[in-house]
Design a protein that fits this description.
The complex is a heterodimer of chains A (430) and B (390). By secondary structure, chain A is α/β, with parallel strands linked by helices. Helices cover 56% and strands 9% of the residues of chain A. Chain A has one domain. In chain A, helix 4 crosses helix 6. The longest helix of chain A has 25 residues. Chain B has 390 residues and is of the alpha/beta class. The N and C termini of chain B lie far apart (57 Å). Classes of the chains: A alpha/beta (430), B alpha/beta (390).
Amino acid sequence: MDTSTSIVGRGNRDGARLFREWFDGLKQAAEREERAAYVFVMGSLNEILKSFDIPVTFPEITSLQLAVRREAHEYLQVAEDQGYSPDICGYVKADVAVQLMNGEHPMGRIPKPSMAVYTNACNTYVKWAEIWERMYGIPIFTLDVPGHRQLGIHTRPGDEQFESDRRYVETQIRELIPLCEKVTGRAFDIDRLRETMAHANTMSRSWARILELNASHPSVFNALTDGTIYLGVANALRGTEAGARYFQDLVEEMELKVASGIGTLTEEKHRLAFVGVPCYPIFRRFNEMFAEWGGTFVLSTYLWFASGGSNRGYEYDLVDPIRSLSEGLLLGVRDAMDSMFDQTTMIEESLDGFGIDGVVYHPIKSCRTVSTGLADSRRALLQERDVATLFIESDMMDRRVVSEAQLKNRIDAFFEGLVSRKRHVVAGGR
Amino acid sequence: MKTSTPLLGPWQDQPLEEVLGLCRDTIEEADFSAVDRWRATGGKVAGHFQVYFPCEVAHAAGMLPVKVRGAPVEPTAAESRFGSYLCSIIKTSLQLALEGKLQLDAFFSHPICDAARNLAAIWGRNFDYPAQIVYLPQNANSAGSATYLAHEYRRVARLLGEISGIEVTDERLRDSIRLYNRSRELVRELYEIKRETPWKVSAEDGYALVAVGGLIPVEEHIQLLEAVLPALRARDANPEDRVRVVFEGAFCEQPPLDLIRLVGRSCYIVDDDFLIGLRWMTEDVPVQGSPFDALAESYLERSSYSPVQHDNRKPKEKMLLDRVHRARADAVVLTAAKMCEPGLEEQVAYVKALDHERIRYFLSEFEENASSFGALELQVETFVESLLFT
């Protein structure tokens, strides 16, 4: 086996293995009746939690796994029978059912929570954590990260406004630490924090590099499918040595693919950007509907916001870790918020660099955070640029609002238009 | 900017029923004529979306703070800016601005929910004036929250001062706080009337008297309430055999006035969370020391509750039960706006708490632009009968 044969595809293989091992670890913790910190993908605070060796569970990930495995419907029904509305977040409802079923999950039992730690990147995080607070009487901790106040106006480190916000975040981090000490019975070790932050630095640096490499022609990974595997590791293993090593390997793989001109499995005819959250109830089929036309996703806002903004590659200053953690969180979580509320400029800036032919907007019923502004964002993009766009609605959890036939009709029409547009350009039209 | 002519129209010499009718008409009209009258004098307007906004800051900058709370209109233009599966208020609020019915010089949203946070960006893409989020603290229990919030208020004050050309000094802000303290005191008095002698003020009139405060200068609202409250107390009305209820679930999107009227026909609404942001402060804001600090501390320490604020000291089910007991209510009308994530999630906890306490409740959803209430009226009447005869 030559080097390239063993490296190409390694990211997906190792990613699946590491993810499985992470889940197995949770299952074992549950079997030992140990508890885990419940956290979320946008600002998991894994740097702090891992420094206390607290196992972490990502309920967003365990919920989406139910949809990918086509078992979400039964879980949603359990929660709705308890009075949860069909119109609220499907992730929340699936998790409520998991909790009511004593952690039962197709990938193994989920440990009960010892605490919940979350940012305000998504308001539903707060409401979700309140459910666990009521169920288990556990402490819940909101790390409030003030976002940008106005479209296009961004404050930077050193600005008075930024520093006021950063001090607020730092105060809260310093309040989280004694809570972790109380929950674990362990003393805080700042050098251990430096270790987890160093690993997080490697991961963020690598993640930014990997996303950047997908601008190559052909693209080296599918941002919708492969990207979701990488994202799982980026979240579950953030701040760990295994996670850091994985991402270094992934950079190596992607750089090799770029150098060798190795693309994805799709014959790349149309390069697409994806805006929103994937359609997990028909995850594979959803991608196939694009791949059949030679469409591949070279960019996805999901890989920005669901990585907590680590796509920007911010690296912590380990000399002053808590201050730097507050700065990094403020920059990262803000970027994640912008990727959801204010992504028009970010998409526009990427169109040329990534050679994007079309932008696919996929708002979903379950998630107002991501979906509320997408129609207006698309309108604003079209005012600025002549680019093909597709606007399709479905859900990330609830198959009742996923109509495969309708999606296919819309997607086929989109590609017919895209093909016609390209022919027109080749013929000298505009 | 001050105006000598009442924005409500010439209400001072009118009989009580006329004044109440004027208030009801004003809050139901989608043309914002009161705001137009302010603008006609050269005044600037700061629109603030639900739930809470420090109106004192806008007032101190000489601007008219206007509560943006949607309206029962068809959001035909706004629909193209939003996806499906969203609450109505977010769409109708934008609709009012897109149609030019609500003209603003600044717009503020808040991190109350995921839809509202998106709204500031959407507004900003559609209008040239500043559209911002006032990032009220979502960690109410941090030692850093009050300092952070005071800083945030100073930022808003600078922006509004630039727009109006009037600097928000500490003294000006203290004066505004004094006025708002007085208006809140009067609103508390109105709620006392609702609680102690609910037959003296109908549900819809009580609502209108508060809601109109989100459209007119605080000075005029004070004059209005100072005139109306004694007249209400002096009314010759007798108690009726109606059920005393708390109406809960209207912290953001507002039920149509007809729905409030419908409930009021068979129940006394003795407390509620209608427009809770206008009544967020439960006590006077101190006028000593830094007024920015005082406003920030009051937001956190002397305030009500809602599903969109988590505070370890204010478990929401407990707060609801306290409201029910304080109002000596027999039952709760427990509602949520359609597609309102925080409201619908909170309903589950409220139901459990009410079940546990064996307090009867009527569970429902509403939408601000609903116009047909026949089935709902029948359900409410059935509920009331079940309370009266079981």
